[in-house]
Amino acid sequence: MPHLLAAAATPADLFAAREQMALSLGWHIILACFGVGMPALTVFAEWRGLRTGNDDYIRLAHRWAKVMGVLFAVGAVSGTILSFEMGVLWPGLMSVYGQVIGLPFALEGFAFFIEAVFLGIYLYAWDRLPPRRHVLTGLPVCVAGVASAFFVVSANSWMNQPRGFDLVNGTVTRVRPWAAMFNPAMPMETLHMILAAFMVAGFGVASVYAAGMLRGRRDRYHRLGFLVPFVTAAVVTPFQIVVGDSLARMLASHQPPKLAAIEGLNHTGSHVPISVGGVYLDGRMRYALRVPDGLSLLVGYRPGTVVQGLDDVPPADRPPINPVHLGFQSMVAIGFGLLVLGAWFALSWWRRRDLPRSRWFLRFAAVAGIASVVALEMGWVTTEVGRQPWIVWRHQRTADAVNPAPGLWAGLVAVLLVYVVLTVATVYVLNRLRTGPVGAPQEAES
Amino acid sequence: MTAAQWLLVLGWAGVTLYALLGGADFGGGFWDMLAGDARRGHSQRRLIESSIGPVWEANHVWLIFVIVLFWTCFPTVFAAVASTLYIPLTLVALGIIARGAAFAFRKASTELWQQRLFGGGFALSSVLTPFFLGTVAGGVASGRVPPGLAAGDLLTSWWNPTSVLAGLLAIGSTAYLAAVFLTGDARRSGEAGLAEAFRRRALVTAAVTGAIMLGGILILRDDAPRLYSGLTGRALPVVVISAVAGLASLALLITRRYALTRVTAALAVAAVLWGWALAQYPMLLPPDVTIERAAASPSVLHATLGVVIAGMIVLVPSLLWLYSLFQRPVPR
Q1: GO BP, one example (chain A) (predicted)?
Q2: Cβ contact B174:B162 at 8 Å
């Protein structure tokens, strides 16, 4: 068999590996968002409950803690798979660059460790610790969750802006791991992801209570269950749009092919319009609404700003246009939709200290959770597909990183089946938790 | 010692902790599987669940720690192992997903058929996952993973006598560790009947695992002569420690001194791992990839060492608090 393996992986195996990674990452990222955002919501609810003596807050904290336990367990194992897949699917990447991006992963390992330790305490020690101390054990969970996201995404940002090493005849030398971690894409990309996590967790939890309120459950418990996560997410949304904008602007100077793919921009030039909607067909953008000079203005604040097009990139180095363009468009559209929803709420609250009266508000709020997850996934499609055909931008092609062994297709099928079962079971169990009676999660409860 | 050697020692300590702590959790799944039908097995399953519940996620992170340390410090070896052994590693990954999810789901579900379904998934993957991890270890130890991407045989690199032996040993030792651990837990929570049941199991698994280990020595002589000569040469004192600790555990179990048994049982299992490491040193991939050849740049090793030490300063007290908190009775 070994003599067969000297050849590169077939395109079908490369495709299978990419799909397996996309599936595992796309699945994990949703859970990871709840891992980052939900501890803050839960600890806040518990703290308010202790401060005010309001029993509804405590009940919310109990229920959210239980949901968090399930989501964290599934998130932890789906994240472990990713560390396996880094080697199993992409040994070419790890063999050459594993040492360059190892540091943020090592730091993430410790952050995750702290998160798991204190989550174990937070979830299972309600009856073992005095209430005040119990709230405090939730704080490391909150901090470590955010830190995990920061470290992991800083490794991803390195794939977009690789540095911190020299290449001599294809061999990595003079590695500067801290410089690799603190690459130019790191600050905005990590912030974008952390804010996204709070939006997904906030809108996600709020949407459950919005659906409950639509069905007539409008008691104080449901109102609080809606208000705490919704307000959190709504406050984050405008900041997220500002961060996303500066991230996109950065592409013009740091990763122009990705911006060109986002816009379906064929030719380098000034006075470039911005394309809203549309599809890239037969080598050009069709059916798009064009705002004259829009992109030039957004990138450089002047209509004369030159923006690089795809013609500056050799055809073999161009990312696929449509997934990147459509991914970005839908992410931005949802982002602005969520901004409007938050503003609607803010206006009503400012005028009458209450939710908007229209049932349409609750209907939109009930789908905001799914919408924010879609926006999250579309954002990852934009950044990951937009980097292709490079796994390490301008340094290593994805095709050279993949495991040359045959049979990766079988792995994809197995992983696909496992994730289908996992998804069904997770949704089922969460639905049970939504309706069942809930006390504090205890270890001796079963 | 060089930075690479320090990191190897720390990484191996991580492997050991995963084998002991995570291993005891996996063994819990093994006993969960054999606990009998829902009615008879209820009290055993409840004990297993309450022992594992608060700690399994933290125990499990050792694996991630080891993987990350490995690819950062010895990237080419990591890539060679992962690409050649991708089949068992994929199965391990799937087993870990199924196990963690099923365990959490069983806790959250209330109806019997669900608990049975998720319990079955938890138990089955608790047995298969250590087995495949063991086959990976056996493949590396018997020198079947050459350097380079997917350069080894995709099937015989992990399906061979040494790998199967290592897989069975992994199942045996996790079951044994769990039985010893659960015996103590059962007695502490005042369930004498359960403590007796797990004590019997600990004795049986100790005997079975010990027998596999003795028989395994003959297999290694044929299948992995290099490892065999290392184990019977330089690593012999550690192997003897393992045997002595194993026998001492038997004696302690018979005399019902459960707290001390935990120490000797852990020592017996840990000594096997360190014996292997000592037998193979300084090769990472036998026969000829050494630590020095495989190590990353010094700047990376130094930064990683710094991060690991700083991380441990935060982590170790937290872990100790976690374990001590749940080893105490609930305050009334």
Answers
A1: aerobic electron transport chain
A2: no
CB pairs under 8 A between A and B: 266
pLDDT of residue B165: 93
Q: What's the domain range around B138? A: 3-327
Quick one: tokens of A227?
């208000």
Residues paired with A290 in a beta bridge: A275
Whether residue B289 lies inside any domain: the answer is yes
Instruction: Classify residue B284 by burial, with Cβ atoms within 10 Å: 0-12, 13-18, 19+.
Output: buried
How many C-beta atoms surround the C-beta of residue B298 within 10 A?
12
B86 and A CB contact within 8 Å: yes
Say yes or no for a CB contact (<8 Å) between A405 and B118.
no
Q: pLDDT digits over B237-269, tens only? A: 999 999 999 899 999 988 888 888 889 999 999
- Provide CB contacts within 8 A for B317, sequence distance 6+: none
For A226-372, where are the E strands, in sequence order?
274-276, 279-281, 284-286, 289-291
| Segments of A131-183 assigned E as strands | 166-168, 171-173
SS3 assignment, position A65: helix
Distance CA A442, CA A446 (A): 9
Q: Does residue B10 belong to any structural domain of this protein?
A: yes
DSSP element (H, E) containing A396: strand A396-397
Residue B332 covered by a domain: no
Residues of A in contact with B119 (CB under 8 A): none
pTM more than 0.95: no
Which residues are CB-contacts of A314 (< 8 A; sequence separation ≥ 6)?
Answer: none
Taking CA atoms, B270 is separated from A299, B68, B215, B218, in Å, by 59, 21, 19, 21
CA dist., res. A224 & res. A46, Å (int):
12
- Cβ–Cβ contact B58 with A under 8 A: yes
Domain assignment of residue B59, yes or no: yes
- Name the token pair of B197: 């049941």
Q: How many domains does chain B have?
A: 1
Section B215-239 average pLDDT: 90
